[in-house]
């Protein structure tokens, strides 16, 4: 059981480039989400999904796209990277949506946009 | 916007001492959770307390919840160097219609245990 796996761990992008952060979970969880973590800001929800084929926006969705074609995978796409998207990104999953569930986090992806 | 906020922002104590950190939130909740984050790693779940519970224990961890004051505390007893980490509280709001809300995280308390 690998849990939540994120790749890449580190990435440097130039302004305007696009990229995809990959996320996979092997726990058959319905709920998956992406957060960004910035100093002094805590974790902020970018997008989430309550099941395959269903996605919705979180608190800070602008500049990001997601899709959920399978239960296991939930990639996050940066459409045209900006320096403001320099951050640490965490993918997370739980059995279902709701605070009564334990959330399992990936190890994070450090993204720098220059 | 932040639902839960931890206090203090940073805490430094000697190994063996107890560490207490607090979380305050603004609106009624169903559940409150505490997570730990070691430097450079993802968050790890510590404990979940439901709105109808007042106290829960897990090993050296004790969590209390006071819904009348909209606050929770996390106590780590007999601290160890390995407890050095950031600690986050996370809450979900009560939604009308019974829908399930996601967790909102606070900004965290950075705990340093001095050997």
Brief digest:
Chain A is mostly beta strands and 114 residues long. Chain A has strands at 4-7, 10-13, 19-25, 31-38, 42-51, 54-57, 64-66, 76-78, 87-94, 104-105, 109-113.
Provide a descriptive summary of the structure in words.
The complex is a heterodimer of chains A (114) and B (115). The radius of gyration of chain A is 13 Å and the shape is globular. Chain A has strands at residues 4-7, 10-13, 19-25, 31-38, 42-51, 54-57, 64-66, 76-78, 87-94, 104-105, 109-113. With 114 residues, chain A is an all-beta fold. In chain A, the strands form two sheets. In chain A, strands 2, 4, 5, 6, 9, 10 and 11 form a seven-stranded mixed sheet that branches. In chain A, strands 1-3-8-7 form a four-stranded antiparallel sheet, with no helix packed on it. In chain A, strand 4 and strand 5 (42-51) form a beta hairpin. In chain A, 0% of the residues lie in helices and 51% in strands. Chain B is mostly beta strands and 115 residues long. In chain B, 0% of the residues lie in helices and 57% in strands. Chain B has strands spanning 4-7, 10-14, 19-25, 29-37, 43-50, 55-58, 61-66, 71-76, 85-93, 104-105, 109-114. In chain B, the strands form two sheets. In chain B, strands 2, 4, 5, 9, 10 and 11 form a six-stranded mixed sheet that branches. A five-stranded antiparallel sheet of chain B has the order 1-3-8-7-6, with no helix packed on it. The model of chain B has no long low-confidence stretch (mean pLDDT 92). The chains are: A mainly beta (114), B mainly beta (115).
């Amino acid at each position: 059981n690998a849990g939540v796996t994120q790749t890449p761990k580190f990435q440097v992008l130039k302004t305007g480039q696009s990229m995809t952060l990959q996320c996979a979970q092997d726990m058959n969880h319905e709920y998956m989400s992406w957060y960004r973590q910035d100093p002094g800001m805590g974790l902020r929800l970018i997008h989430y999904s309550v099941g395959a084929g269903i996605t919705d926006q979180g608190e800070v969705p602008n500049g990001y796209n997601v899709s959920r074609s399978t239960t296991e995978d939930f990639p996050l796409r940066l459409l045209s990277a900006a320096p403001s998207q320099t951050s640490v990104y965490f993918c997370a999953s739980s059995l279902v949506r709701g605070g009564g569930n334990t959330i399992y986090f990936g190890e994070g992806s450090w993204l720098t946009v220059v | 916007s932040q639902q839960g906020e931890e206090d203090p922002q940073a805490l430094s104590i000697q190994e063996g001492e107890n560490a207490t950190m607090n979380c305050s939130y603004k609106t009624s909740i169903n559940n409150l959770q505490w997570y730990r984050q070691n430097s450079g790693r993802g968050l790890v779940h510590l404990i979940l307390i439901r709105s109808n519970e007042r106290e829960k224990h897990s090993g050296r961890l004790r969590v209390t919840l006071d819904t009348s004051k909209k606050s929770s505390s996390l106590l780590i007893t007999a601290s160890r160097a390995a407890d050095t980490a950031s600690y986050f509280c996370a809450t979900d709001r009560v939604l009308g219609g019974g829908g399930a809300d996601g967790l909102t995280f606070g900004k965290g308390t950075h705990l340093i245990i001095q050997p």
